[in-house]
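Re: export button greyed out
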Amino acid sequence: MKREKDKVKIIPLGGLNEIGKNMTIIEYKEDIIVIDCGLKFPDEDMFGIDIVIPDVTYLIKNKEKVRGIFFTHGHEDHIGALPYILKQLNVPVYGTKLTLGIIETKLKEHGLLSTTNLITVKARDIIRLQSASVEFIKTNHSIADSVAIAIHTPLGVILHTGDFKIDYTPIDGEIMDFARFAELGKKGVLAMLADSTNVERPGYTMSERTVGETFENIFSSANGRIIVATFASNIHRIQQILMAAEKYGRKVAVSGRSMENTVAVATELGYLTPGKDVVINIDAINRYPNDKIVIITTGSQGEPMSALARMATSEHKKVNIIEGDMVIISASPIPGNEKLISKVINQLFKKGAEVIYEALADVHVSGHACQEELKLMHCLAKPRFFIPVHGEYRHLKQHKELAQKLGMNSNNIIIMDNGEVVEITRDSIRKNGTVISGQVFVDGLGVGDVGNIVLRDRKHLSQDGILTVVVTIERESGAVIAGPDIISRGFVYVRESEDLMGEAREIVKAALKECEAKKISDWASMKAMIKDALRVYLYEKTKRKPMILPIIMEI
Amino acid sequence: MKREKDKVKIIPLGGLNEIGKNMTIIEYKEDIIVIDCGLKFPDEDMFGIDIVIPDVTYLIKNKEKVRGIFFTHGHEDHIGALPYILKQLNVPVYGTKLTLGIIETKLKEHGLLSTTNLITVKARDIIRLQSASVEFIKTNHSIADSVAIAIHTPLGVILHTGDFKIDYTPIDGEIMDFARFAELGKKGVLAMLADSTNVERPGYTMSERTVGETFENIFSSANGRIIVATFASNIHRIQQILMAAEKYGRKVAVSGRSMENTVAVATELGYLTPGKDVVINIDAINRYPNDKIVIITTGSQGEPMSALARMATSEHKKVNIIEGDMVIISASPIPGNEKLISKVINQLFKKGAEVIYEALADVHVSGHACQEELKLMHCLAKPRFFIPVHGEYRHLKQHKELAQKLGMNSNNIIIMDNGEVVEITRDSIRKNGTVISGQVFVDGLGVGDVGNIVLRDRKHLSQDGILTVVVTIERESGAVIAGPDIISRGFVYVRESEDLMGEAREIVKAALKECEAKKISDWASMKAMIKDALRVYLYEKTKRKPMILPIIMEI
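Workaround output, generated via the alternate export path:
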């Protein structure tokens, strides 16, 4: 009878109905397995926030069960929250060599390297826990050393694909482990969680190798320097740039902190194999003719402080864009970054560079599976139950429809939200309750000290600024003995609005007189009266609603 | 001799190196001709700004020469600044019937209709001015009644294409006036200014009619309500929805203020020809079965206050999205709006609607010419000189390259910036100086009262909030008699940061003591000391830089 009630719980703490902060809990009996621990970059209205991380209250409450965090690959949206989470929950960290290499750099910066138990795994490794075991399976993605994760339980296998694409000609020759997915599928996968990012795109994602062909075409005809901006984590892309450079007798320098870090780590670990003397220090670029130089740089998203943006605005210490430079932006805009990238492209063109970007040539391919690749994964794994993950609702919904088209019963597919609990038995799947989840804001050194009230205030301040009204009052008599003074910031250009500010002061004086007349002397009421009177006056005159901050000083 | 020095001046006041606020001056002898008068929507970092309009100082200085504003079509980025400019410069307004119809609605709202001289023109009309004349030439675009403008001067024709595409099967049957462009080309066009928006796209823009075919496919199989979101100004799109609705026996209701306005104006003027009893009031939709209803709505850009967004969040008074609704987003995201649109799509899916958008079906075509269409225009007009317009620098640059590929000499092509003056004689083109130009911010009722300092403050406030420090000091003795009080907004959640705020107060006290010890008593220096001490302390503790506003009250 006991066995009948056996169940696996699946609880996503992030990554559903959003892009970023991927983190999924698989819980079976005494084991909690955490897959990934990513950050999310803030939305536009999260003013001043640096990054967003998942709320892991549930894990802290159940920390004796947490066996570790198991990583699928080394992208920020899968590893970026780790330093913050480890400070709350020191558990073992499992990942492949490159993934842990990238994580180590991060932990060093946070002073956490010596206190963290890092366990390197490789594809087909199996980690045995108390009641379950965790297996890593080779996939392809836009970063090397990516894996899917299979959790073996007595009820069956829970398969999490991680982020993946299918690449029959990957740069490192390491093709996805079709055989193992098929083997699991044959044995029976109880439930699959699969990447939904590109479900809206028909067909197949092109092989990473096609980008190398474009590079070769460009490199063969360029007469000046070649500057390539791409994601620091895209090791295969970088390897292809190194190969094209070597073929055409060019030296390669690297710019941008994250690019320098990744190239160092990936070279040390053997994931990048530059030819002898191909890589040079950025300080040495002027010793070679322009047509013998390639610079690999950060800034493919137009980030204003990135190396490429600084080159474009002549703020880079080592590289200034000159006529004849060929700049390749080897990336797609992440939604929201279109305008930033466009700004950098315009600046580069203005400086006389040629600029090649996705609209003009095949200088980028996605790292995620399109529809036909997703179908292959479904057909290999043949899961009994299916949970689409890694996407906004539109993607999850369409991934569900894709599975149905492949013959799956809609009752066997569940679209989840962060914090929801799904319970899976041998022959059933159902939602059952929720756990605490949500977004924790990191702002400077503060983790979680900025909440919705602070953000609401920042938004209000950003729209119409603030008026501070100060008045000093004598405690005994209640008489105003200094002020009211009004100081504004971000509201109007004061010199051109002297009349307005003068009248505003009269409005406050009138409000204070009214308080006196009505014998209102508690501060809260006085402040409210000042605020109301000013708000009405200012809105009428300007149709704006600045924050109004009345301060009463008592002596 | 005098004639040798004859020249036409071309001065763009907006629309170059930006998307929006299109406005171009063509000046010949005693005539200033203004083409279009558009607004720009604010960039993300223009906090609190409603719209951006061009700086027309040059026109005001030369107002006796300004013969009028001549409109190419009725889109906001070409007409939206008119009410603000007319308040500074009351000149005649020329446009085709629909363009003026849309302008009238705008002027009514601003109370300007009775004081404005509106002159309706039609294609091939010629307006004779003192030394030049202005001709209107039929084009196609994503709004009906669009025209190019040819300025005839003794030196030759200056041709401004306006926004255009080539559509051999336009909905109203009115094909672009190829013959007139060819005729002008044969006579000799001195200079052409041409739309560069889609210069990065190879091939041709599809005909508007192809969208109608997609509508028919969708309408023929939909079982519930059909809700189509599109630009209110896209009359042809709306006409095609009306036609598909009529064909499949559906009634059409309209939602959203701008959609209601445009449909009313366009129907009145004969640009929309709905079948008998096809259009119904939105209040009547519940009298018909769901599969007999179409709703045309605003909100195709995901604007949070638009009708579609309100339907998606159940805040719309008349329409709530239900299971079985089919929503068509018949538009492309304008760069910067991707996330807003995605949010609405997710909400619609969550409510059980089917949603069809550009990624999934051909429910939109562009209104701008792609490369092959631009080539046709160049080949018809055969201008001696060429100025690419309507685009960011990347577009202008690539449009220049396109013209060179067609055989034009690069010296005959000039890429301009807003405010620059180009002088053209019979056989020369050169830049010669600049005029005042720039962006004027509209914020509520204020036009130009928010400048860069206010925006900088708003940005600062948005990032880390503000700390106001108030202290009351006795004038005679310089003694602190109340405070320091510190009030923060948008900085930290105060209840959880009591220690920090307490220590901050001590820092201010120490700074005040130091002032006393050093006999510093002028306010500016005292404020600077408070500010510096607090800034250093807060940055060390939080890595944040809130605005610090010290206020000293004197009694």
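Chain A has a mean pLDDT of 93. The button fix ships in the next patch.
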